Amino acid sequence: MGSASTIKVNDKRTINAWAMFDWANSSYALVITTAIFPIYFNATVGDTVDILGFTFENTALFSFSIAAAYLIISLMLPVLSGIADYGGKRLSFMKFFTIMGSLACISLFAFKDDSVRSLYIGLIGFMLAIIGFAGSQVFYNSFLPIIVTEDRYDRVSAKGFTFGYIGSVILLIMNLVMIERPHWFMLDDWAANLGYEDLVVGGKTLATRIAFVMVGLWWLGFAQIPFRRLPKDEKTPLEPSIVSKGMAELRKVWQQVQQLTNTKRFLYSFFFYTAGAQTVIMLASTFATDVLNFETGELIVVILILQLVGAIGAFLFAKISEWRGNKISIMIQLFIWTIVCVVAYFVTEKWQFYIIAAAVGLVMGGIQSMSRSTYSKLIPEDTDDTTSFFSFYDVLEKVSIVLGTFSFGFINQITGGMRNSILALIVFFVLGIVILSRVTIQEEFSN
Predict the structure, then answer these.
(1) Do residues 4 and 146 make contact, with C-beta atoms less than 8 angstroms apart?
(2) pLDDT tens figures, 132-180
(3) Residue 192's CATH number
(4) Which stretches within 181-260 are classed as H helix?
(5) How far is it, in rounded angstroms, from Cα 32 to Cα 27?
(6) DSSP 119-181
(7) Whole-prediction pTM value?
(8) Rounded distance, CA 31 to CA 273, Å?
(9) What pLDDT sits at residue 193?
(10) Looking at residues 272-281, what average pLDDT do you find?
């Protein structure tokens, strides 16, 4: 197992390369998960979908597909991260999941109508993209305590999220120009050759499908920067026994977590509040289009507000953390998240939703950045099992997303509306607040 002592820490070039992975893969998180694909999915498959003998609301099916993908990755990650940490294959697994996710995004070009074949391509491609994104993220996160010292966790973590917001917005704008002005790129002519009856809609549809390809190429292309700069894997042979050894590593870490009261409590709190936060982030655009009838152009404004304010929020709450500590920083954000859900339940006008979007954007980047850096501080300083420790963090995140998105979809399915689903998310934030109030982070009081 590699030792962090052999790696040059706080190296500016390495930190920038690490942050560039956020630049690369956040294009998926924004374009596929949040902005363009949800709109395209709902428009393509219709209000209800018959699949596997069941009839689903399209928004519920979208939620369930997210839950299923995160359930799969949550089952895979404990083994993979344990193997990666024991076998020194951190970077290799990061590359594998990146390639999987980027190719899955490219495959979404074939999702073109509501036929059974096309629908399965869309669902499977979307789910594989989620698995690729989530799988690469656990190994990406595990590099943080290896490449920087603890005093820089907050700032470097926020830098990664900021890189991600900027890069993803750049690609989103490029995609939107192509979608809104397909004739600039001669896509209307292409649509005519493909037999689209409505060339305006056909050109935009074709542009949307090309946008999915651009995400895959952007993700895979910019990921080459961190792949070349991050610490290389050890040349440890993958013996048949490495799976059992990897699981042994996880059991050892789990036993350590049981003895670390504050780490354990933080993980419980993180589990609940992440279920709420990630569900809001992933389904905000779906809520806007289905409940408030947002048009594509209006929704894009919402997405841009989320991203741009999110970059500010990541640094704002990093500053609050430096001033008052990580716990206070996260607590403030959880109260804002709770208020957002209450207000969203009653919102009826589009201008009100723009304000909600700004509030979500403010805490969207901060809650992820502060959670990652706070957990880094709660990992024992003398451990080499960083990937195994982060596997608990990432598995909990993935399982919490399963809980959050499934709950959202289930309530939507049985009530026929998403307002009740939004209101139910308050429970997750309240539980997170209550448990976090019992966590002590010693570093907060060392200044």
Answers:
(1) yes
(2) 998 898 788 878 878 888 778 778 877 887 888 789 889 988 998 888 8
(3) 1.20.1250.20
(4) 187-194, 199-222, 224-229, 242-259
(5) 8
(6) HHHHHHHHHHHHHHHHHHHHHHHHTHHHHS-GGGHHHHHHHHHHHHHHHHHHHHHHHHHHHH-
(7) 0.77
(8) 24
(9) 66
(10) 90
Q: How confident is the model at residue 291 (pLDDT cuts 50, 70, 90)?
A: confident
> Please, what sign has the CA dihedral across residues 276, 282, 286, 288?
positive
Q: Residues 6 or more apart from 212 whose CB is under 8 A from it?
A: 31, 32, 36, 37, 105, 106, 108, 109, 111
Residues 383 and 37: their CA atoms lie apart, in Å, by: 41
Contact 86, 98 (CB under 8 A): no
Structural tokens at position 305: 């507000």
Question: What are 21's two structure tokens?
Answer: 């992975």
* Residue 230, phi then psi, degrees to nearest 5: -70, 155
Give the range with max mean pLDDT: 56-65, 218-227, 410-419.
Answer: 218-227
| Separation CA 205–CA 216 (nearest Å) | 18
Query: In whole angstroms, how far apart are CA 146 and each of 10, 67, 143?
Result: 9, 31, 5
Q: Which domain holds residue 23?
A: 4-445
Number of domains, the chain: 1
**What distance in Å separates the CA atoms of residue 27 and residue 368, rounded to the nearest whole number?**
17
387 contacts 34 by C-beta, under 8 angstroms: no
Distance from C-alpha of 110 to C-alpha of 122, rounded to nearest angstrom: 8
CB 106 within 8 Å of CB 35: no
